[in-house]
Design a protein that fits this description.
about 375 residues, alpha/beta, 15 helices, about 15% strand
């Protein structure tokens, strides 16, 4: 099937009532005295978020905010794919496909859609305009649980190529962070005649000879090696036993809340922050769509694939945010990639579309200004 159908998010009230009832029946764990964050997200912080979720958080307002943008679904390779598609009013706009990661959703990017699609209306140069496509990853909120195994980054990249072709875009750019790094790289390989460039706001450094690196670069590489040598608990579980994780997260809203909020808060620059309602929107989307398990499976599928992400076969732009999980070393990246643009930011973390939307937008514009004509 190649039909593209309009989509509107409209959660049944019964589902919201069920969520409220489950929150009221939460069975809380104990906590070691003075544990802080050493044992995981603190009990007091989860109670605070859960109380807001139950009494003050307005899902309908967030639903309306998402529905303010055109959304669609289409079936690709046997799986439904949901996506936001906003065309620019500028006739020469460049199509751009943006790929989110975990634990994220398309809702993370709502603040950048307007400036990217209509820079004229946001104080920018109309020559920097994009037609923006933001798909929901297969198995993630709004695309829904994937119907079968095998959805690794390469298969997703092939689906993205099909999606862009189905939308009539023959030449386009790609942008991403987290899972958007290997997926965008793979897209540039499977559709290298169509992808003019890839912009990443997160990536690791290719490992190899690191002699002669500056002190800051040595520190970056040391941090990356430590991160890879001792993967976080969520990573180990989702890359080995995602089905085991799924039961508790799918049955308990507070379990889902703690699992996601732990990483969102940890990976955010404290100076920029992500407000509680943003966290709750992400958690609510995972909860209402029942995608805790299916979104976790991407870690398992990719672990089974093995090996590092494929190098990007088109020009690359990199935005490095100061408080991200790892920060790449330019000298090492340039050994493998065709780096034509590199920016270091002194703030922001793993979710720059939420934490630093203006700097991210400016950097995306600046990179694609270099490659639009290629």
């Amino acid at each position: 099937m190649s039909e593209i159908a309009p989509f509107r998010l409209d959660v049944p009230q019964a589902d919201l009532d069920d969520l409220a009832a489950r929150l009221d029946r939460t069975r809380w764990p104990d906590e070691p005295p003075g544990a802080g964050w050493d044992y995981g997200i603190p009990l007091a912080r989860v109670r605070e978020l859960a109380a807001r979720w139950r009494t003050a958080y307005d899902w309908r307002a967030q639903e309306a905010r998402i529905n303010a943008f055109p959304q669609f679904t289409t079936e690709i390779d046997g799986t439904e794919v949901h996506f936001v598609h906003v065309r620019s009013p500028e006739p020469d706009a460049l199509p751009l496909i943006i790929t989110h990661g975990w634990p994220s959703t398309i809702a993370d990017f709502l603040d950048v859609i307007g400036p990217l699609t209509d820079p004229r209306a946001h104080g920018g140069d109309p020559a920097d305009a994009f037609h923006v496509v933001i798909p929901s990853l297969p198995g993630f909120p709004l695309s829904g649980p994937a119907r079968e195994t095998g959805w690794d980054v390469n298969r997703i990249a092939r689906a993205w190529a099909t999606l862009m072709e189905r939308l009539g875009y023959e030449r386009y750019g790609a942008q991403g962070g987290d899972w958007g790094w290997p997926i965008s790289n793979a897209l540039a390989t499977v559709a290298k005649e169509r992808v003019v460039g890839v912009h990443l706001n997160y990536m690791g450094s290719p490992l190899g000879d690191d002699d002669g690196l500056a002190e800051d670069d040595v520190e970056r590489l040391r941090d990356q090696k430590a991160y890879l040598a001792h993967p976080a608990g969520y990573w180990q579980m989702q890359s080995t036993r995602p089905q085991t994780v799924a039961y508790g997260l799918t049955d308990s809203p507070v379990g889902q809340l703690a699992w996601l909020a732990d990483k969102i808060i940890e990976w955010t620059d404290p100076a920029s922050g992500v407000d509680d309602d943003r966290v709750l929107t992400t958690v609510t989307l995972y909860w209402l769509t029942g995608t805790a398990g299916s979104s976790s499976r991407l870690h398992r599928e990719n672990a089974a694939r093995g090996g590092p992400p494929v190098p990007c076969s088109v020009p690359l732009g990199v935005a490095v945010f100061a408080h991200d999980l790892v920060r790449p070393v330019r000298r090492l990246v340039e050994r493998v990639y065709d780096v034509v643009h590199w920016t270091e930011f002194d703030r922001g973390g793993h979710f720059p579309a939420v934490e630093a939307p203006d700097p991210l937008t400016d950097d995306v514009r600046a990179f694609f200004r270099r490659v639009r004509g290629t």
